[in-house]
Amino acid sequence: DLNNDGKVTFLERKFIIADNNPADGALSAQEWIKADLPSVFGPFDGHKSQISNVVDELHYTYYTVLHECALQGVRAYQRLLVSYPLAAWCNITVYAQLINPWISFNNSQTDLMVATWNEITSQLLWSSTVVQKPSVEYSSLKPPITSGSGYGTMQGALFASWKGREQLNSDYTCSDSFAPNLDGFVVVVRSNIDTISLASAVIFMVFSSAFVNFVCFLFLLLIGVGHLLWLVERTENPEQFNPSYARGVLDGAWFCIVTMTTVGYGDKVPVTGLGKAITAVWMLFGIIVFGVFAGQISSNVNVLSAEASISDITTIAGFTIGILQSTDFVELDQIYQFTPSYCADLQSCFDKLNTKSVSALLLPQVDVLSYFVDNRLAQSNCGNPFRITGSPVLQDKYFSARFCSYGKEIFAATYLANGINSILANLRDNGFTDSLVQAVTSAAEDTSSAGSCSPPNPFNLSIIIPAASILIVYYTIIYYINHIRRKIQKQTLDSLFSKTSNKTSNQIALHYGKKWKELARQKAEIRRRGGEIPPPTVPNAYSQDDRLLHFLRRAKILTNGQTRDLKRLQDEMKYFTSSSRRSCKLLVFAILVLVCAITAVVYSIVIVSKTRKVYVQVSPS
């Protein structure tokens, strides 16, 4: 106490400890640094302002605040500086954002961050106040307060979410992770594995850029070969390859299509030697083309199968993977060799995965768990539609659940981080954090009765139902047409035979059938006896002219009757055609009304589900 004021100040301690030459009453540069106890407080030389490169008054004040808080903590709690003591009046204001299940403020025994922080401060005998804020960013952290009623108060924050490049800023000093097992990045996939179908593989291929380019190239080649065959065959084979340009080129193109697809109708055949040679080459080309086509479908099935079998970080190479825009500096796509699809936030990433725009997601683990809990996906009716697969990666480089404070040119941040790390190591050793980590993971685990839900239907109803509906409609139309045709035929026969009899067509057919059968039996009996069958006779006709006249009269009667029947048949067919046209129009109108109704219902369901989702997210419960 050099000035006898009753307390040892920071400068007095320096003189007592480091002044090797008390006679000069001054401290050299070496003595000054030695008095800083560099193994505990850090060298005072490290607190120079980066702007002026000198220890200015402001940074000197920051240093003295830490010194005073630490030494009074030593006296008050009878602890060495290696135990990182702080005086009770040196309060630590800790800001925290509500992030379930990491920080919820409801029950500190199950909130990993708050419970761990309370345990750390109780063991270090630190005085702290946890303040809930709607949003906590690194830029909101400030240096210790050096004046006023808040003198000695230090600031920090509990972070439990990915903050992007800012969390690697050297201006902030952070502790070790509160939950190392939950750090890093994880692969997220859809829980339900889709059934790989040939239809989906074909659709996937048809809409691919490579297939569209190939089809366009094949079309141009087909037109070119069609021209060539027409030029070669038009003079020697004009019956099958029309000499006119328009029809002739179409004939050549048609022949190329039929030959390339190996259908071979045979309606057109080259006759010239050159035409046959061109056709032979074209046949071989067609075999190659359809071999490539079948191979491409098989390749697409393999790709879709591989996408369904993504199990960890080693199986995502070559796929389109969704990642947060804020993780671009990590260069995950370069490390794991996938095509990135950037998302602005977690919701957009999971929307892409749900709509199958991406094969999987690679996201910070803490954010994934928070998303599962906030959206209550673990308690959904048929289980969480998404799941984490494989082990986390880059846990030793990128972690989010930790305490941070402003540490640019301020050693107090390092002092706090070192004290927290010393207790965190003990908490991990004695299993304190294990139970809290288990509470976090269990909150995100699937607790619904997902096992009772039926598995996805292997039949693609979106294809089967339209196909069956079209089949039923066509069968109904064809059956109706045949029914009308049979009805018209029956009416025609009845009208023809009604001229000579009151019997129905069936009765007349039965009568003449018996009569013809009896006549055939008589003729067979005559032949058996060796007799001669007499020629048919015409009643009341004794000469050839009479027979001809009789035949012409009967033909005229029959022709007049058939003409009337055919006219009536035409009228009925016209009526049937108009009725069919009206029925088709009515059917199309009914289908359009049904489609509009279904679209309205689906749109209403989507709007209601989105509204409910927003309500669930903003509801306090």
Automatic annotation (TrEMBL):
Primary localization class, coarse: membrane
A GO molecular function held by the record: ligand-gated monoatomic ion channel activity
The keyword Ion transport appears for this protein: yes
PANTHER family in alphabetical order: POTASSIUM VOLTAGE-GATED CHANNEL PROTEIN SHAB, VOLTAGE-GATED POTASSIUM CHANNEL
GO BP annotations, alphabetical order: action potential
Mode of membrane association: Multi-pass membrane protein
Protein name per the record: Potassium channel domain-containing protein
Keywords: Ion channel, Ion transport, Membrane, Transmembrane, Transmembrane helix, Transport
Coiled coil location: none
Keyword flag Transport: yes
InterPro entries, per database record: K_chnl_dom, VG_K_chnl
Membrane-spanning ranges: 198-225, 245-265, 277-297, 459-481, 586-608
Gene Ontology cellular-component terms listed: voltage-gated potassium channel complex
Subcellular location: Membrane
Domain Potassium channel per the UniProt entry, residue ranges: 246-298
